[in-house]
Amino acid sequence: MRRAVRRADLPAVAETRRVLRDNLREWGVSALVDTTELLATELLTNALQHTCGGAVLTATLSPEALRAGMAGQWLRIEVRDTVARLPRPRRREVDPAGDHGTSGRGLLLVEALADAWGVRPCPTGGKEVWFELRAHPN
């Protein structure tokens, strides 16, 4: 599954979530829908919020043969954008001033809920932020 979203087209984020949900159910991994939807939305909105261009979300379900030594299938979500600057997760420490803002925690969610995640520069410019979840059949 691959979806491109333009920065000015924020309603497309909801449509992308719907298509992602439908694909996960069709692939037989509906148990991953809630977590995948949350994390993919975080990465996609981060890309749209912090770049001037759009973003491309790609979802793939890899057979176990692609993950040597790891049984089962793996769901991989990649969000590619046009800015080369690599994101950093917000620090986990509590602000002594009591600032418990609601923004800036997307990568912490990804780090906490994904089985694996990372970021890499793209050879053609920009970057790709990805996460993986182990897929358990329904």
Automatic annotation (TrEMBL):
Keywords, in A-Z order: Kinase, Serine/threonine-protein kinase, Transferase
Superkingdom, natural source: Bacteria
One Pfam short name: HATPase_c_2
Domain Histidine kinase/HSP90-like ATPase: 8-130
InterPro entries cross-referenced by the UniProt entry: Anti-sigma-factor_SerPK (IPR050267), HATPase_C_sf (IPR036890), HATPase_dom (IPR003594)
Record has Transferase as a keyword: yes
GO MF annotation terms: protein serine/threonine kinase activity
PANTHER family found in the cross-reference section: ANTI-SIGMA-F FACTOR RSBW (PTHR35526:SF3), ANTI-SIGMA-F FACTOR RSBW-RELATED (PTHR35526)
The protein's name: Putative regulatory protein
Source organism (scientific name): Actinacidiphila reveromycinica
Top-level taxonomy: Bacteria, Bacillati, Actinomycetota, Actinomycetes, Kitasatosporales
